[in-house]
Each structure stands twice: as C-alpha cells, then as structure tokens.
Amino acid sequence: MKVLMALIAVAVVILSPSSVAAQAALQCGQRAGVTETLQQNFSEQPVSIGLANNGAVIEVFASQDGSFTIMMTQTNGLSCIIAAGDNWENLGTILSGFKI
C-alpha cells in the first residue's frame, strides 16, 4: 500500500498538463465506458492492477507512446481517474533480477 501511495504521489507531482486536460473530461463513470475511452482515444491498455485496503481496485493503463492513466474502481462500481501523465516506463523489464 505504501508503494502504491508513493506511486500516486509521484504521478500527481509530475503530471503532464496536456494529458490531464485531455483526460480530465473522463473523471468518473462506469468502468467499461472509461476503459473503452482510454483504449480508443489514448491507445492505453491495462499494465498493472492492485487492491487497496478499502476494497477499491487500482489499475494503471499505459500506451506504447508513454501516456498513462491511474484509475480507481470503488466497491460501488464507480471508476474514477485519479492521475494521468506521460513517460510511463514498465520497471519489470528494467529491474529484472534487481533486488530491492
């Protein structure tokens, strides 16, 4: 949970205004609609997922161009974008074999 919160905090600090403006119109909605918009308008696909202590599902969507969106789906089914930005990197391949 601490790692997720740190990731969200860093993402909020380094957000690209253009991505935020483009995706701000989404804010909240039904998951299917939000994910469809991310895929169609930004070519973003799910790259990671986690479960928060409050039961919400946290997902990161990213494109090959580096844009990303962090979405939270609450237990009532409402999905909200909580961060968006550019220059996403998948650390799994970068840190392969690296011990933290």
Structure in words:
Helix content is 36%, strand content 30%. With 100 residues, it is α+β, with helices and mostly antiparallel strands. The protein has a domain at 28-86. It has a five-stranded antiparallel sheet with strand order 1-5-4-3-2. The chain has helices at residues 2-13, 17-24, 31-42, 91-94; strands at residues 28-30, 45-51, 57-62, 68-73, 78-85. It has four helices and five strands, in the order ααβαββββα.
What labels describe this entry?
4 helices, disordered N terminus, alpha+beta, 100 residues
Q: Would you summarize the structure shown here?
A:
With 100 residues, the protein is of the alpha+beta class.
User: In DSSP terms, counting alpha (H) and pi (I) runs of 4 or more, how many helices?
Assistant: 4
Q: What proportion of the residues is helical, as a percent range?
A: 25-40%
Write down the overall mean pLDDT: 78
For the largest beta-sheet, the strand count, sense and barrel status come to: 5 strands, antiparallel
Unreliable runs, pLDDT <50, ≥5 residues? 2-7, 9-18, 20-24
Give the termini separation. 16 Å
Query: How would you sum up the global shape?
Result: flat
